[in-house]
Amino acid sequence: EAGVVQSPRYKIIEKKQPVAFWCNPISGHNTLYWYRQNLGQGPELLIRYENEEAVDDSQLPKDRFSAERLKGVDSTLKIQPAELGDSAVYLCASSLELDNEQFFGPGTRLTVL
Amino acid sequence: GDSVTQMEGPVTLSEEAFLTINCTYTATGYPSLFWYVQYPGEGLQLLLKATKADDKGSNKGFEATYRKETTSFHLEKGSVQVSDSAVYFCALRDSNYQLIWGAGTKLIIKP
């Protein structure tokens, strides 16, 4: 069974540019998570989806970040415009249901210059 | 709010040494506790978990016991291998099913 797929794996952009990350969760998993992981820290939840509904986006900086999960499967996280402080690894995870084990993708390492 | 504190790394050991990585937590209620591992270039993987006090989680020779009295969930392994080199994260799941993470501990095993 394929795991959580993320692309791209690495992205380097200049500040004020837009960037988008894509995630394909494990087939059949209803819950999808986006995390941000800064260097030397644990992941921080940005947004959680139950099917196509965003049920917890309290940590998402809504002035520049947006996310969508069309048809309750793939998801895209966007930053526009990017700032230097956005440099981090962006992780996607999925679980069968809310209280089941989360499976993580390899992440996208974003560098903002 | 809920929080997790784990020992700073890196932790450097020789092969076959005994490993302990300390983890303590602050939480309301009785959260489930987890250890995740991140090998170089790979995604986070669940290593073991415990859902209630005195439960022992175990996997791949690693163990951790949920100690309510000391609010701890220390990770142990009796004999480490070079292949255990990775970053280890302690986490709790709060009442909203959100994972609260420690900062991670890098483990380096030398042959």
Brief synopsis:
The complex is a heterodimer of chains A (113) and B (111). With 113 residues, chain A is mostly beta strands.
Topology summary:
The complex is a heterodimer of chains A (113) and B (111).
Chain A: E1 5-7, E2 10-13, E3 19-24, E4 31-37, E5 44-50, E6 53-56, E7 65-68, E8 75-79, E9 88-95, E10 103-104, E11 108-112
Parallel strand pairs in A: 2-11
Antiparallel strand pairs in A: 1-3, 3-8, 4-5, 4-9, 5-6, 7-8, 9-10, 9-11
Chain B: E1 3-6, E2 11-14, E3 19-21, E4 23-26, E5 32-38, E6 45-50, E7 56-59, E8 62-65, E9 75-77, E10 86-93, E11 99-101, E12 105-110
Parallel strand pairs in B: 2-12
Antiparallel strand pairs in B: 1-4, 3-9, 5-6, 5-10, 7-8, 8-9, 10-11, 10-12
Protein described:
The complex is a heterodimer of chains A (113) and B (111). In chain A, strands 2, 4, 5, 6, 9, 10 and 11 form a seven-stranded mixed sheet that branches. Chain A contains no helices and eleven strands. Chain A has 113 residues and is an all-beta fold. Chain B is mainly β. Chain B contains no helices and twelve strands. Chain B starts with a strand and ends with a strand. The mean pLDDT of chain B is 95. The interface between A and B is medium-sized, with 21 and 18 residues.
